[in-house]
Amino acid sequence: MATAYPLTGILFIRDFRVDAAAKGVSVAEAALRDAQATHLRLQEAHIAYRTWRGEETGRRYQAIMGQRLTQDELDKFKIGLSILIDEELHKEAAVRDAARAIEVARENVDAARQAWRFADRDRQKIIYHRGEWQKEYAREVARQEDLELEEFKPVLFVAEAEAGE
């Protein structure tokens, strides 16, 4: 009759923790990919806006060249240009924020990978222990069988020993 490994429950928990840590790594890597995609998208939008803003500023200046503007009209023109610049600054800030989000996501991936390594190391300890326990158990079973064989005397030998007395 084989005896079950006494730490099977702990090994099950360690397997569960390794699986959970592996899922955590997958989630963190997906978040990193999303952050990188967002950064790239925002960067491209910023570059496109900067190009468009330069062209739009030129068009607006061309539209007022040679015209006599009142101070109020000139102020509105300047406000319009400052709104364009402000929008570019917002896009630039969004790109910086996305770059910071990438760094945070990378740190999260590193932390998740480290958690997986620790969980796997703990599981490997139990697996090693189970292997050693199985070897020891096999030796003990063999020793018990040898003891049983030593104590076993065939019926024929027992009858002869009793007759010789």
User: Mean pLDDT score, rounded?
Assistant: 91
Please estimate the helix content.
Answer: over 70%
Shape: rod-shaped
Total domain count:
1
Q: Provide the succession of SSEs.
A: HHH
**Number of helical segments with 4 or more residues:** 3
- State which percent range the strand residues make up: under 5%
Distance from N terminus to C terminus (CA atoms, Å) equals: 39 Å
Poorly predicted residue ranges? none
From the 3D coordinates, which CATH architecture would you assign? Orthogonal Bundle
- Count of strand segments: 0
Structural class: mainly alpha
Estimated radius of gyration:
39 Å
Just give the CATH class.
Mainly Alpha
Query: Could you name the CATH topology?
Result: Helix Hairpins
Describe the protein in words.
The model has no long low-confidence stretch (mean pLDDT 91). Helix 1 (8-64) packs antiparallel against helix 2 (71-151). By secondary structure, the chain is mostly helical. It starts with 7 loop residues before the first helix and ends with a helix. The protein contains 3 helices and no strands. The protein has one domain (8-163): Helix Hairpins. The chain has helices at 8-64, 71-151, 155-163.
